[in-house]
Design goal:
Elements (H helix, E strand, L loop, with lengths): L3 E5 L2 E6 L2 E3 L3 H9 L4 E3 L2 E3 L2 H4 L4 E7 L2 E7 L2 E10 L2 E4 L2 E2 L2 E2 L2 E4 L2 E5 L2 H11 L5 E2 L2 H13 L3 E3 L27 H16 L2 E4 L7 H14 L5 E5 L4 H11 L5 E4 L16 E5 H11 L4 E7 L10 H7 L3 E7 L8 H11 L7 H7 L4 H14 E2 L12
Parallel strand pairs: 6-13, 7-15, 16-21, 16-22, 17-19, 17-20, 18-19, 20-21
Antiparallel strand pairs: 1-2, 2-3, 4-5, 7-8, 8-9, 8-14, 10-11, 12-13
Helix pairs in contact: 5-6, 8-9, 10-11, 10-12
Length: 390
């Protein structure tokens, strides 16, 4: 079977009867240097210069760059090379970055593709264009460990704009959410769908519990299974009362005290199980007999010490989604917030202790963590939302 060489999307390609194939740089060099025709992808190919006689081959390499950006809340990944002040896009072929490019009729070998490809394989990126928020977070974490990407995402405003409010329809809430509460609810719903975890860090008095109850009501609508709320002992009754007040259809159970159930299937009869940090530590093996749809930590600063038994047990809970609720996400040290990040994003921040050694416990470390935190946390103070309040 024969074929011919063509230029396609800034790359040297082979046009075949069943489509177009982008060979690797080594294939191209072999075809060019061989005195006879060689086989590429089961096709017999001669030198590309026979089909494209004016194509020149550079003796110099060029360098791949990758930009991370956000357009209309869509996160994007754009691989390119830069020549003479212009950008030339580099494409993927069958999930792999092509390691050569043609710029102004000159062919260049791209020398640093492998280091990007290694990261792309681990993160699951197989094409340029739109990427998920979860992929962005993993790429961002790689970037701190080994700077590779141009991160031009404004994470402070990312996905924190309200939508049309339709998610609240039909939830049966006995409350009208203030505009900032609607924004918080919609943002958390999106984050759970995209990354399975987030932090609600509003200042005290701004109605964090109501926003969480709206999320619990949304989860009930989809019948995704029981939720677990872990809170200080003094707040257990308050959670039951607030659920009954704002969403009476939620079936709640307090799992605490000497008369608490010893039969794990009991949890399946309720929408929300509410327990204390101490009870969780005592019953962790029993409570892990089911996989919770969502686990919510109220006053989540209780797990700021990542070496504590309380923090370890909370992170060990089998769950699909996680929300940390706290009015004081930062207290004293960088490690405080790293422990929360490990809880909400165990696949990204999988070892808070190791991370605490990477990030200095000072202003510079705080700035590095802030870029992650701004993506994964929504926080409003009274001064920010005073116009929404009566």
């Amino acid at each position: 079977m024969t074929c011919r060489w063509i230029l396609k999307d800034n790359h040297l390609a082979i046009s075949m009867a069943d489509g177009i194939y982008f060979p690797s740089a080594s294939n191209i060099v072999s075809a060019r240097e061989s005195c006879e025709k060689i086989h590429i992808n089961n096709y017999e190919c001669g030198s590309p210069e026979l089909d494209i006689p004016d194509l020149r081959f550079s003796r110099f390499n060029c360098t791949l760059k990758v930009e991370l950006a956000c357009h209309n809340n869509d996160l994007t990944l754009f691989p390119y090379v830069e020549k003479n002040g212009n950008r030339w896009s580099v494409i993927f072929c069958q999930g792999k970055i092509i390691d050569s490019i043609v710029v102004e009729n000159r062919w260049f070998f791209i020398s640093n593709v492998d280091e990007f490809q290694e990261v792309f394989n681990e993160v699951g990126v197989t094409s340029s264009g739109t990427i998920s928020l979860s992929q962005y977070l993993k790429l961002k974490k790689f970037n701190f460990e080994r700077p590779l990407f141009e991160d031009n995402v404004d994470s402070y405003s990312l996905l924190k704009t309200p939508n049309d409010g339709s998610l609240l329809n039909g939830l049966g809430l006995n409350a009208t959410l203030y505009p900032y509460q609607k924004t918080g609810f919609e943002w958390m719903a999106f984050m759970l769908e995209q990354t399975h975890g987030c932090i609600l860090g509003d200042e005290m008095g701004l109605g964090k519990t109501l926003q969480i109850i709206a999320i619990l009501s949304l989860e009930k609508r989809f019948d995704r299974g029981p939720a677990l709320v872990i809170a200080p002992i003094s707040l257990l009754d308050n959670w039951v009362n607030e659920c009954r007040k704002f969403s009476p259809t939620l079936k709640t159970l307090i799992h605490h005290g000497s008369d608490r159930t010893g039969y794990y299937k009991t949890f399946m009869d309720y929408d929300v199980v509410i327990t204390s940090y101490s009870t969780l530590c005592n019953d962790i093996h029993f409570m892990n007999m089911i996989c919770w749809n969502i686990v919510i930590l109220d006053e989540a600063q209780n797990i700021k010490n990542f070496d504590s038994e309380r923090a370890k047990k909370c992170k060990a809970i089998r769950r699909n989604q996680s929300i940390a609720v706290t009015g004081t996400p930062f207290e004293n040290h960088i490690s405080d917030i790293l422990s929360l990040l490990e809880f909400i994003q165990p696949n990204v921040f999988n070892n808070a202790k190791e991370l605490s050694e990477q990030y200095s416990d000072d202003v510079n470390g705080g700035k590095q963590i802030a870029s992650f935190l701004s993506t994964l946390m929504i926080r409003r103070v009274v001064a920010n939302v005073s116009n929404d309040l009566p």
